[in-house]
Amino acid sequence: MRRSRGLALAALVALLAGGAARADGEGSAPVGDPAQGRKAAGMCRTCHGLDGIARIPIAPHIGGESAGYLAAQLRAFRSGDRVHEMMSIVSASLSDQAIADLAAWYGSLAARATPPDDHAGRDGPGECTACHGVDGLAQVGDAPNLAGETDMYIIAQLQSFRIGKRRHAVMNAVAEDLTDDDIQALADWYSAIGYAVEMPE
Ligand code: HEC
Ligand code: HEC
Questions:
Q1: Which of 88, 182, 186, 196 is deepest in the core (most CB within 10 A)?
Q2: Is the pTM of this model over 0.70?
Q3: Sign, CA torsion 91/61/11/176
Protein backbone atom coordinates (compact mmCIF):
# COMPACT_ATOMS: atom_id res chain seq x y z
CA MET A 1 0.00 0.00 0.00
CA ARG A 2 1.42 3.35 -0.99
CA ARG A 3 2.16 6.39 1.14
CA SER A 4 0.56 8.90 -1.24
CA ARG A 5 -2.81 7.62 -0.13
CA GLY A 6 -2.52 9.71 3.07
CA LEU A 7 -3.62 12.83 1.20
CA ALA A 8 -6.49 11.04 -0.45
CA LEU A 9 -7.53 9.82 2.97
CA ALA A 10 -7.71 13.39 4.32
CA ALA A 11 -10.01 14.28 1.43
CA LEU A 12 -12.16 11.24 2.13
CA VAL A 13 -12.49 12.09 5.79
CA ALA A 14 -13.67 15.60 4.80
CA LEU A 15 -16.17 14.07 2.38
CA LEU A 16 -17.42 11.74 5.07
CA ALA A 17 -17.92 14.58 7.54
CA GLY A 18 -20.03 16.38 4.90
CA GLY A 19 -22.12 13.25 4.39
CA ALA A 20 -22.75 12.89 8.11
CA ALA A 21 -23.99 16.47 8.33
CA ARG A 22 -26.46 15.88 5.49
CA ALA A 23 -27.77 12.66 7.05
CA ASP A 24 -28.53 14.53 10.29
CA GLY A 25 -30.77 16.92 8.41
CA GLU A 26 -33.04 14.21 6.97
CA GLY A 27 -35.39 13.82 9.88
CA SER A 28 -38.14 11.89 8.05
CA ALA A 29 -37.27 8.35 9.22
CA PRO A 30 -39.50 6.91 11.98
CA VAL A 31 -38.11 6.56 15.50
CA GLY A 32 -37.12 2.97 16.26
CA ASP A 33 -38.31 0.99 19.28
CA PRO A 34 -35.69 -1.55 20.40
CA ALA A 35 -38.27 -3.75 22.17
CA GLN A 36 -40.27 -4.12 18.95
CA GLY A 37 -37.02 -4.66 17.06
CA ARG A 38 -36.04 -7.46 19.41
CA LYS A 39 -39.30 -9.25 18.58
CA ALA A 40 -38.88 -8.69 14.85
CA ALA A 41 -35.31 -10.02 15.07
CA GLY A 42 -36.78 -13.52 15.19
CA MET A 43 -36.66 -13.20 11.37
CA CYS A 44 -32.95 -12.58 11.45
CA ARG A 45 -31.69 -14.97 14.11
CA THR A 46 -30.82 -17.98 11.92
CA CYS A 47 -28.16 -15.95 10.19
CA HIS A 48 -27.32 -13.04 12.54
CA GLY A 49 -28.48 -14.29 15.95
CA LEU A 50 -30.77 -12.38 18.26
CA ASP A 51 -27.61 -10.73 19.60
CA GLY A 52 -26.37 -9.80 16.12
CA ILE A 53 -23.42 -12.17 16.22
CA ALA A 54 -23.28 -13.92 12.84
CA ARG A 55 -24.23 -17.60 12.72
CA ILE A 56 -23.06 -18.27 9.15
CA PRO A 57 -19.67 -17.27 7.70
CA ILE A 58 -21.06 -15.22 4.82
CA ALA A 59 -23.14 -13.02 7.15
CA PRO A 60 -21.68 -10.10 9.12
CA HIS A 61 -22.09 -9.29 12.80
CA ILE A 62 -24.77 -6.61 13.10
CA GLY A 63 -25.08 -6.28 16.90
CA GLY A 64 -23.39 -3.12 18.14
CA GLU A 65 -23.33 -1.31 14.80
CA SER A 66 -24.78 2.21 14.85
CA ALA A 67 -28.54 2.25 14.27
CA GLY A 68 -27.97 4.74 11.45
CA TYR A 69 -25.66 2.37 9.60
CA LEU A 70 -27.99 -0.61 10.04
CA ALA A 71 -31.05 1.29 8.84
CA ALA A 72 -29.14 2.67 5.85
CA GLN A 73 -28.04 -0.84 4.79
CA LEU A 74 -31.53 -2.29 5.18
CA ARG A 75 -32.98 0.53 3.09
CA ALA A 76 -30.24 -0.01 0.48
CA PHE A 77 -31.05 -3.74 0.23
CA ARG A 78 -34.76 -2.97 0.00
CA SER A 79 -34.32 -0.38 -2.77
CA GLY A 80 -31.84 -2.52 -4.71
CA ASP A 81 -28.91 -0.13 -4.20
CA ARG A 82 -27.14 -2.98 -2.41
CA VAL A 83 -27.82 -6.45 -3.74
CA HIS A 84 -27.49 -9.85 -2.06
CA GLU A 85 -29.54 -12.94 -2.80
CA MET A 86 -30.52 -13.40 0.86
CA MET A 87 -30.82 -9.84 2.15
CA SER A 88 -32.65 -8.53 -0.92
CA ILE A 89 -35.43 -11.02 -0.16
CA VAL A 90 -35.38 -10.49 3.62
CA SER A 91 -35.58 -6.69 3.34
CA ALA A 92 -38.26 -6.56 0.64
CA SER A 93 -41.10 -6.98 3.16
CA LEU A 94 -39.73 -4.63 5.85
CA SER A 95 -41.66 -1.40 6.49
CA ASP A 96 -39.82 1.82 7.38
CA GLN A 97 -40.96 1.30 10.97
CA ALA A 98 -39.67 -2.32 11.05
CA ILE A 99 -36.31 -1.14 9.71
CA ALA A 100 -36.12 1.57 12.38
CA ASP A 101 -37.08 -0.93 15.13
CA LEU A 102 -34.57 -3.59 14.00
CA ALA A 103 -31.83 -0.97 13.70
CA ALA A 104 -32.70 0.32 17.18
CA TRP A 105 -32.51 -3.20 18.67
CA TYR A 106 -29.24 -4.30 17.14
CA GLY A 107 -27.82 -0.79 17.51
CA SER A 108 -28.61 -0.72 21.23
CA LEU A 109 -26.14 -3.52 22.00
CA ALA A 110 -22.71 -2.45 23.23
CA ALA A 111 -19.84 -3.97 21.23
CA ARG A 112 -16.47 -5.08 22.57
CA ALA A 113 -13.37 -5.92 20.52
CA THR A 114 -10.57 -8.17 21.75
CA PRO A 115 -7.45 -7.92 19.58
CA PRO A 116 -5.18 -10.98 19.41
CA ASP A 117 -1.85 -10.87 21.27
CA ASP A 118 0.19 -10.38 18.10
CA HIS A 119 -1.58 -7.05 17.39
CA ALA A 120 -0.13 -5.54 20.57
CA GLY A 121 1.89 -2.40 19.85
CA ARG A 122 1.17 -2.52 16.09
CA ASP A 123 -0.45 0.40 14.25
CA GLY A 124 -2.76 -1.69 12.10
CA PRO A 125 -3.84 -0.68 8.58
CA GLY A 126 -3.22 3.08 8.82
CA GLU A 127 -5.46 4.03 5.93
CA CYS A 128 -8.50 2.43 7.54
CA THR A 129 -8.14 3.22 11.22
CA ALA A 130 -9.48 6.80 11.15
CA CYS A 131 -12.89 5.35 10.40
CA HIS A 132 -12.75 1.66 11.42
CA GLY A 133 -10.29 1.86 14.32
CA VAL A 134 -7.15 -0.20 14.90
CA ASP A 135 -9.34 -2.68 16.78
CA GLY A 136 -12.12 -2.70 14.18
CA LEU A 137 -14.61 -0.62 16.17
CA ALA A 138 -16.08 2.26 14.15
CA GLN A 139 -14.71 5.72 14.89
CA VAL A 140 -17.31 7.61 12.87
CA GLY A 141 -21.07 7.16 13.02
CA ASP A 142 -21.78 5.94 9.52
CA ALA A 143 -18.89 3.44 9.33
CA PRO A 144 -19.40 -0.18 10.44
CA ASN A 145 -17.36 -2.23 12.89
CA LEU A 146 -15.02 -4.67 11.14
CA ALA A 147 -13.76 -6.57 14.19
CA GLY A 148 -14.37 -10.29 14.00
CA GLU A 149 -16.04 -10.32 10.59
CA THR A 150 -14.92 -13.37 8.63
CA ASP A 151 -12.13 -13.11 6.06
CA MET A 152 -14.71 -14.24 3.55
CA TYR A 153 -17.11 -11.39 4.32
CA ILE A 154 -14.47 -8.63 4.41
CA ILE A 155 -12.91 -9.83 1.16
CA ALA A 156 -16.29 -10.03 -0.57
CA GLN A 157 -17.21 -6.48 0.48
CA LEU A 158 -13.85 -4.95 -0.51
CA GLN A 159 -14.01 -6.67 -3.90
CA SER A 160 -17.56 -5.43 -4.33
CA PHE A 161 -16.55 -1.84 -3.47
CA ARG A 162 -13.52 -2.16 -5.79
CA ILE A 163 -15.62 -3.01 -8.85
CA GLY A 164 -18.35 -0.55 -7.85
CA LYS A 165 -21.03 -3.21 -7.35
CA ARG A 166 -21.55 -2.02 -3.77
CA ARG A 167 -21.64 1.76 -4.04
CA HIS A 168 -20.35 4.21 -1.46
CA ALA A 169 -18.26 7.25 -2.45
CA VAL A 170 -15.66 6.83 0.30
CA MET A 171 -15.29 3.06 0.17
CA ASN A 172 -15.25 2.91 -3.65
CA ALA A 173 -12.33 5.37 -3.58
CA VAL A 174 -10.59 3.48 -0.76
CA ALA A 175 -10.92 0.10 -2.48
CA GLU A 176 -10.10 1.31 -5.99
CA ASP A 177 -6.39 0.61 -5.86
CA LEU A 178 -6.24 -2.19 -3.35
CA THR A 179 -4.58 -5.30 -4.75
CA ASP A 180 -5.84 -8.79 -3.93
CA ASP A 181 -2.87 -9.14 -1.56
CA ASP A 182 -3.79 -5.85 0.19
CA ILE A 183 -7.37 -7.06 0.57
CA GLN A 184 -6.23 -10.37 2.03
CA ALA A 185 -3.92 -8.63 4.53
CA LEU A 186 -6.64 -6.18 5.60
CA ALA A 187 -9.15 -8.99 6.02
CA ASP A 188 -6.63 -11.00 8.05
CA TRP A 189 -6.05 -8.03 10.39
CA TYR A 190 -9.70 -7.35 11.18
CA SER A 191 -10.96 -10.95 11.16
CA ALA A 192 -8.38 -11.94 13.79
CA ILE A 193 -9.98 -9.60 16.35
CA GLY A 194 -12.53 -11.07 18.75
CA TYR A 195 -15.99 -9.44 18.74
CA ALA A 196 -18.72 -9.69 21.34
CA VAL A 197 -21.83 -7.75 22.35
CA GLU A 198 -23.55 -7.30 25.68
CA MET A 199 -27.20 -8.35 25.78
CA PRO A 200 -29.48 -6.43 28.16
CA GLU A 201 -31.01 -8.52 30.99
C1 HEC B 1 -30.72 -16.33 5.38
C2 HEC B 1 -29.73 -15.57 6.13
C3 HEC B 1 -30.06 -14.16 6.54
C4 HEC B 1 -31.18 -13.69 7.20
C5 HEC B 1 -32.41 -14.47 7.63
C6 HEC B 1 -30.95 -12.29 7.44
N7 HEC B 1 -29.74 -11.91 6.95
FE8 HEC B 1 -28.93 -10.06 7.02
N9 HEC B 1 -27.32 -10.68 5.94
C10 HEC B 1 -27.15 -11.97 5.50
C11 HEC B 1 -25.96 -12.01 4.65
C12 HEC B 1 -25.41 -13.24 3.96
C13 HEC B 1 -25.46 -10.69 4.63
C14 HEC B 1 -24.24 -10.19 3.84
C15 HEC B 1 -24.73 -9.57 2.55
C16 HEC B 1 -23.62 -9.15 1.63
O17 HEC B 1 -22.67 -9.92 1.45
O18 HEC B 1 -23.71 -8.04 1.08
C19 HEC B 1 -26.32 -9.90 5.46
C20 HEC B 1 -26.15 -8.52 5.68
C21 HEC B 1 -26.95 -7.78 6.52
C22 HEC B 1 -26.72 -6.40 6.86
C23 HEC B 1 -25.56 -5.54 6.41
C24 HEC B 1 -24.56 -5.47 7.55
C25 HEC B 1 -23.28 -4.78 7.22
O26 HEC B 1 -22.36 -4.87 8.04
O27 HEC B 1 -23.17 -4.15 6.18
C28 HEC B 1 -27.73 -6.02 7.71
C29 HEC B 1 -27.91 -4.66 8.36
C30 HEC B 1 -28.58 -7.16 7.89
N31 HEC B 1 -28.09 -8.22 7.16
C32 HEC B 1 -29.70 -7.16 8.70
C33 HEC B 1 -30.60 -8.22 8.78
C34 HEC B 1 -31.84 -8.15 9.52
C35 HEC B 1 -32.29 -6.98 10.35
C36 HEC B 1 -32.46 -9.35 9.32
C37 HEC B 1 -33.84 -9.77 9.82
C38 HEC B 1 -34.94 -8.92 9.42
C39 HEC B 1 -31.59 -10.17 8.48
N40 HEC B 1 -30.47 -9.43 8.16
C41 HEC B 1 -31.86 -11.45 8.08
C42 HEC B 1 -27.93 -13.06 5.77
C43 HEC B 1 -29.17 -13.02 6.38
C1 HEC C 1 -13.14 7.96 5.65
C2 HEC C 1 -13.70 6.83 6.36
C3 HEC C 1 -13.33 5.44 5.90
C4 HEC C 1 -12.08 4.93 5.63
C5 HEC C 1 -10.74 5.66 5.64
C6 HEC C 1 -12.27 3.52 5.34
N7 HEC C 1 -13.58 3.19 5.44
FE8 HEC C 1 -14.41 1.36 5.17
N9 HEC C 1 -16.26 2.13 5.40
C10 HEC C 1 -16.55 3.44 5.68
C11 HEC C 1 -17.97 3.66 5.62
C12 HEC C 1 -18.70 4.97 5.85
C13 HEC C 1 -18.55 2.40 5.30
C14 HEC C 1 -20.02 2.07 5.08
C15 HEC C 1 -20.30 2.05 3.59
C16 HEC C 1 -21.76 1.92 3.26
O17 HEC C 1 -22.57 2.64 3.86
O18 HEC C 1 -22.08 1.09 2.40
C19 HEC C 1 -17.44 1.46 5.19
C20 HEC C 1 -17.58 0.11 4.92
C21 HEC C 1 -16.54 -0.80 4.89
C22 HEC C 1 -16.69 -2.24 4.78
C23 HEC C 1 -17.99 -3.01 4.72
C24 HEC C 1 -18.27 -3.57 6.12
C25 HEC C 1 -19.62 -4.17 6.29
O26 HEC C 1 -19.97 -4.46 7.45
O27 HEC C 1 -20.32 -4.39 5.30
C28 HEC C 1 -15.44 -2.78 4.78
C29 HEC C 1 -15.07 -4.25 4.70
C30 HEC C 1 -14.51 -1.68 4.90
N31 HEC C 1 -15.21 -0.49 4.97
C32 HEC C 1 -13.14 -1.82 4.95
C33 HEC C 1 -12.25 -0.76 4.96
C34 HEC C 1 -10.81 -0.92 4.87
C35 HEC C 1 -10.10 -2.26 4.85
C36 HEC C 1 -10.28 0.33 4.86
C37 HEC C 1 -8.83 0.71 4.69
C38 HEC C 1 -8.17 0.20 3.47
C39 HEC C 1 -11.38 1.27 4.96
N40 HEC C 1 -12.55 0.57 5.01
C41 HEC C 1 -11.25 2.65 5.03
C42 HEC C 1 -15.64 4.44 5.95
C43 HEC C 1 -14.27 4.33 5.77
A1: 186
A2: yes
A3: negative
